[in-house]
Specification:
- The structure is a single chain.
- This protein has 707 residues and is α+β, with helices and mostly antiparallel strands.
- Helix content is 17%, strand content 33%.
- The protein has an eight-stranded mixed β-sheet with strand order 33-34-36-35-37-38-39-40, sandwiched between helices. A four-stranded antiparallel β-sheet has the order 1-2-3-4, with no helix packed on it. A four-stranded antiparallel β-sheet has the order 5-6-7-8, with no helix packed on it.
- Helix 8 runs antiparallel to helix 9.
- The longest helix is centred in the last third of the chain and has 19 residues.
- It is globular, with a radius of gyration of 26 Å.
- The two termini are 35 Å apart.
């Protein structure tokens, strides 16, 4: 009997091992079926919140109201048509929801132009819409972008073709030009009483802050100079402005390869006279340069007559506060972490943000909601634990914090929690499809390893259970490059898709290592801004190569079957890996990557001026040597190249050029062109098409027969 028992147990263990991969297996369609929330916002009064949901390409506005915050669908767009929803806001009185439908607002250029993923002969428009919070039929107000609702809740100001327009919030009359100012106008900000509008007028080599009052009063230009001014913010009483001043363009050509301080300063101005004076000057160090993380300056005029802003000056993106009359700034958020997704409470007394900090040492690879008063370094991490939380906003009544929450398994959803602290209540869980494979998803592990020059690199390892003793492996390289992949679902829709893809590949039996290489955020200034990164030398590639070497040394990895994939900057590093190290990387999928930096650096180095940058020629040479095209002769590994031909972040020509070169070299290659979609796969079915093609390619190239 005992012998029979142990024989059965052994048989079950063998069977479980053989079926280990199958037990985790699920389709890409199922793991990408989650609803993704974005643009979370609140009204200035009451307890009303709104957000956009992308449900398999069908994007709609949802709202909720305290005290129960039961989600309610406000719009009814039922097609996977690639039309994103952005600039979502609620009027101060809570009666109206305003949004923009269309465009590609994550792009580097042409973000305001329509996206036509369905190749319709009549293309869609980029339009501003309003809909009553209580429910009703949405109304198209006008073609335009960047709408802001007046504090009086009666009208909208917005930008169209670089000029400022206005329309009633209820759409009762047609939109019309509010004023015309030479240049490209934007960064609109209503005065607290709604009687004036501050804006930025960009005139290419310089930019002014202006104030519009009415059609009979000339525009007031605030201390016009040869500078570039930005980010105007009103004082609570509407009598003053605070803004950022940076140098205008010009000056003698300087080195293109040498890192230089990018100066900026905070100024305050009297609205009635237009007179302005400097309040604070950024330290003249590399870390004191113009901040390049989310929200950039994050400038606000807060309560107690304090100005708050973000600076990288101590090596981390932190929040500071200074009296509007001047003095020594107060560091509000000390520590080795970054502040992102920053918002000011309606009473202007608190700053809320998502930070990679908390009581757990793994929190450097997460985000949690953090609160700090505007006048005291008394920071409080509100959502500790092993989840990921971001984009906090406070409701108008000050009672509730709304946020977006996720875990390693549960996809992102809106949540609410008491402002006085407590546990978040997750909303809309019933919108997760029944077929979503939440339980089989693995919990990624934090791993670290050293690059050859000693830099510590973080990664997330997705390790499947069961399967063969030696598994094929795939390295995922994020884009950006100022991004950070996390130990859970990501706050960006592009990287949430990547997280789902990594989970799917793990479910198919691959070890997957997501690499947070230098140039990324989350680990301090020197990691984010290395001296010889990107087109200046590609120092970050050694982090990617070190990841492959680390993987190859793991006992459960087959070192002969390591693949690599990534999109955008990740596509660039994928191509660089295949070009330089085909012996290490057996196959790759290069998704809309950059392949020749020298094209862009040449344009920067060459001008019609007699004077040239002293290292112009060297700059182009270094950029070429940092590019995959410089190592085509050693590229032998097979590759799949994917690109959408309406890409507004990386030129389609970058992949077209690479394809011609690889054809000439005879490199094994497959290609996929997705017509009329952008860098961000605005159409859900196109994202699935790209993802399934990527997974299928790795299965064919890296899996052994029978696996």
């Amino acid at each position: 009997m005992r012998k029979t028992y142990y024989s059965c147990l052994t048989l079950l263990l063998i069977l479980a091992t053989c079926l280990g991969i199958k037990a985790q297996s699920f389709s890409l369609e199922s793991v990408k079926s989650y609803p993704f929330p974005s643009d979370l916002t609140s009204s200035a009064q009451g307890s009303r919140i709104a957000w956009a949901f992308n449900e398999q390409g069908k994007r709609n506005v949802y709202v909720a109201q305290g005290p129960d915050f039961k989600p309610r669908k406000l719009t009814n767009y039922n097609e996977d048509d690639g039309q994103e929803i952005t600039s979502l806001s609620i009027s101060a009185d809570g009666k109206w929801v305003v949004y923009v439908r269309g465009g590609d607002h994550g792009s580097n250029w042409d973000e305001e132009l329509p996206v036509n993923t369905t190749s319709s002969p009549v293309p869609p428009k980029v339009q501003i819409w309003t809909v009553p919070f209580a429910g009703g039929e949405p109304k198209a107000i006008a073609e335009g972008d960047e709408p802001i609702v007046s504090p009086n809740s009666d009208r909208i100001a917005f930008v169209k073709s670089g000029q400022v327009w206005s329309a009633p919030v209820d759409g009762s009359s047609a939109a019309k030009t509010l004023f015309t100012a030479r240049g490209t106008n934007g960064s609109l900000a209503w005065s607290p009483d709604g009687s004036k509008l501050a804006f930025v007028c960009d005139r290419k080599d310089h930019a002014f802050v202006g104030i519009y009052a009415n059609e009979t009063t000339p525009i007031t230009w605030i201390a016009p100079s040869f500078s570039k001014d930005a980010s105007p913010r009103w004082s609570p009483d509407g009598k003053k402005l605070v803004f950022v001043r940076m140098p205008g363009t010009g000056g003698a050509p300087d080195s293109l390869l040498t890192r230089k301080h990018r100066p900026w300063a905070i100024w305050t101005a009297d609205v009635s006279t237009g007179a302005a004076a400097p309040l604070w000057q950024a330290p003249k160090t590399l870390a004191g340069s113009v901040p390049t993380t989310h929200g950039q300056f994050n400038l606000h005029w807060a309560a107690n007559d304090r100005i708050v802003y973000l600076s990288y000056e101590d090596g981390w993106p932190h929040l500071y506060s200074i009296a509007s009359t001047g003095g020594t700034p107060l560091l509000l958020t000390p520590g080795r972490f970054m502040a992102e997704h920053i918002s000011l409470s309606p009473d202007r007394k608190w700053l809320l943000f998502s930070g990679n900090t908390g009581p757990d040492k793994l929190d450097i690879d997460r985000r949690h909601i953090v609160r700090v008063p505007v006048d005291k370094a008394a920071m409080d991490v509100l959502t500790p634990g092993n989840g990921v939380e971001w984009t906090p906003v406070v409701t108008g009544d000050g009672a509730t914090i709304a946020l977006i929450s996720a875990t390693a398994q549960r996809p992102p959803l809106p949540a609410v929690m008491p402002f006085t602290n407590g546990t978040p209540t997750v909303l809309a869980q019933d919108l997760i499809p029944a077929g979503f494979p939440q339980k089989p998803l693995v919990t990624p592990k934090q791993v670290t390893f050293k690059a050859p020059d000693g830099v510590t690199v973080h990664g997330q390892l997705f390790e499947p259970m069961g399967g063969p003793a030696k598994k094929p492996a795939i390295i995922y390289v994020h884009g950006g490059p100022p991004r950070q992949m996390l130990l859970g679902w990501h706050y960006s829709d592009y990287y949430t898709n990547a997280y789902a893809m990594n989970q799917y590949l793990a479910g198919q039996g691959f070890m997957v290592l997501s690499v947070n290489y230098r140039l990324g955020i989350g680990y301090g200034y020197e990691f984010h801004q290395p001296a010889d990164g990107g087109a200046n030398g590609a120092s970050e590639y050694q982090d990617v190569r070190a990841a492959a070497v680390w993987l190859a040394g793991q006992p459960q990895v087959d070192a002969a079957r390591i693949g690599i994939y990534g999109g955008s900057y990740g596509g660039y590093l994928t191509a660089l890996a295949l070009a330089r190290d085909s012996k290490l990387f057996a196959a790759g999928v290069d998704i809309h990557g950059v392949h020749d930096w020298s094209v862009m650096r040449y344009l920067n180095a060459q001008t019609d001026r007699f004077e040239k940058a002293p290292d112009a020629g060297q700059t182009v040479k270094v950029a070429y040597e940092a590019s995959p095209v410089s190592a085509i002769t050693t590229w032998t590994s097979p590759v799949l190249i994917i690109h959408g031909d309406d890409d507004r972040n990386v030129r389609f020509a970058q992949s077209a050029d690479l394809v011609r070169r690889l054809e000439a070299k005879g490199v094994p290659m497959e290609t996929m062109v997705i017509v009329d979609d952008t860098h961000h796969w605005m159409k859900h079915s196109n994202a699935l098409k790209m993802g399934n093609a990527t997974a299928d390619y790795f299965k064919r190239k890296l899996l052994k027969p029978g696996q």
